Amino acid sequence: MSLRADAPATATQVRRFSRAERWVHRTTAALMGVCVLTAACLYIPELAELVGRRALVVTVHEWAGLALPVPVLAGLASRAFRGDLRLLNRFGPHDRVWLRAARRRDKRREARPAGKFNAGQKIYAAWIAGATLVMLGTGLIMWFTHLTPLVWRTSATFVHDWLALTIGIVLAGHIGMALADPEARRGMRTGSVSREWAEREHPLWRR
Q1: How open is the CA angle 135-137-141, to the nearest 5 degrees?
Q2: C-beta separation of 50 from 65 below 8 A
Q3: CA distances from 31 to 28, 132, 137, 175 (A)
Q4: Contact (CB, 8 A) for 16 and 192
Q5: Which of 205, 187, 194 is nearest to 19 (CA)?
Q6: pTM here?
Q7: Are 113 and 98 in contact (CB under 8 A)?
Q8: 32: how many CB neighbours lie within 10 A of its CB?
Q9: Nearest alpha-carbon partner for 192 in 3, 26, 24, 1
Q10: What are phi and psi of 90, to 5 degrees?
Q11: Confidence label for 190 from pLDDT (cuts 50, 70 and 90)
Q12: What is the pLDDT of residues 156-185, one digit of tens each?
């Protein structure tokens, strides 16, 4: 079986992510982590009291949020990154099969066909990208208060706060699933995964 790779694969290893892709992921994760932690310090009274310096926390939160799209935009210079974005944006018949199996909690290998990315990963990527854009838009409305009417700012604050909570929950799930799969984490850390794992978890991932 021949697996798609960014670089020549060995007998036991296959290249999953390029260096540029890994840096995009790490930088985005770091910025998202700063946003989540500073938001927690702003909205949880115990943390706000512990950290103090609210004005500084607000400033860090604003600039981290503003910088959040930058790694992805910079990553567009990478052919491998653009190729993976195209894969994430395509939803095929096998993805619907994967989702049906996930809903039934059917973990059999043949019940969950997947290419380089499974259906769950595609949905997560689309959702987090959309949520980030909404957070950026509502955050800018809240930041530049003199540019919009009060009703816009009130609505933006409501959406921003509740979507932030939802993002925190989704990210916790994402991290939990990553912790449960050491080989997937190794792929993001080193760029390579074992051929056995790739054939088991992503059987349609082919050259």
Answers
A1: 110
A2: no
A3: 5, 11, 17, 15
A4: yes
A5: 187
A6: 0.84
A7: yes
A8: 19
A9: 3
A10: -110, 125
A11: very high
A12: 999 999 999 999 999 999 999 999 999 999
